[in-house]
Amino acid sequence: MADRFGRYYEIPKRLSALGVTIQMLVYSYRRHPTTCISVNDRFSILSFGVFGFAAFLWHLVTLARSGRYQTVIGSGDTPYCIIAVLIARLTGLRSVCDIYDNFETYASRRVPFMIQALGWAVRHADRTIVFEETLGHHLVQAYGAGATCTVPNGIDPEVFHVRNKGACRAALGISAATPIVGYFGSLTTHRGTAVLFDAFNYIASQHPDVLFLMAGSGQHHIPPTRCHVRHLGLVTQRSLAELICACDAATIVYADNAFATFSFPQKLMEYIASQVPFVTPAIGGAVRFLDAFPQYLYRVGDPLDLARHILAILETRPRAFPPPITWDTAALRCYDCLIAGIAPVVRQ
To answer: Is the full-model pTM beyond 0.85?
Structure first.
């Protein structure tokens, strides 16, 4: 809740500016007291700790019965989509499932019948919102989801924009002449980061002066490597924006798995907004989005192809990019889905 960024802050904040009243209820798996944050007059967040699930449900039912709200949205994981649809049907409100990731890959899938319950939820929701079109097609084909619409993730142009590369490097104490390749994200096995370091080692064999600048979680997963790596750990959004703009090239890595198949990397938009050339695996929604920019796509799971694409960027310094999607654009699409796109509920 302290991090004022991301889909569940940026979109509601902008919806509230359009006149939508939003009371967000958050249930945490961590132990902490019930906390309320008022973002503005129309958007507030109420968070419950791990022992507050009963209070979380009681508040949800009370709000649904208050007559002040028309729609119950479930998101974050499969159980919340199920709860949202159930509460909406019991109280005569509209229901929306916001599937911002492939929930089939989440830990909740291990609960018996959870995947079947996800199918029930998207079939009975008045609208299913997805963050990527490929995922929407999958939910329709696999579960018979009804009306779906795509609300992508975006960027805040006040944070992610073109910055002076020299100034960003000076703040890090890095020479203007040093080639920098960036990776900003978690280092976990399911992301396929072994491919990343294999590619880095190959690049270092061709250009020993390249610095690999990194930030994010999982620093302990960095293997012994022949290349020069500088990992800065977790950083703020504004610090991340400056790190990106210090780079000559940036990269994204995913493994070839069910998570990546329905993915759309947020970092892609951040790199585009910063006008920093990048490479991303040819999997998920990035393939469609970058259809006219194949130079930014490499074969998923192929470290040599990744390395060659990065080396090509360091050589040619491309400057052609598709336009980035902003949170303003995403919020307008969400508004259309929630307000204009759903007819009044008539339940038998």
So the answer is: yes
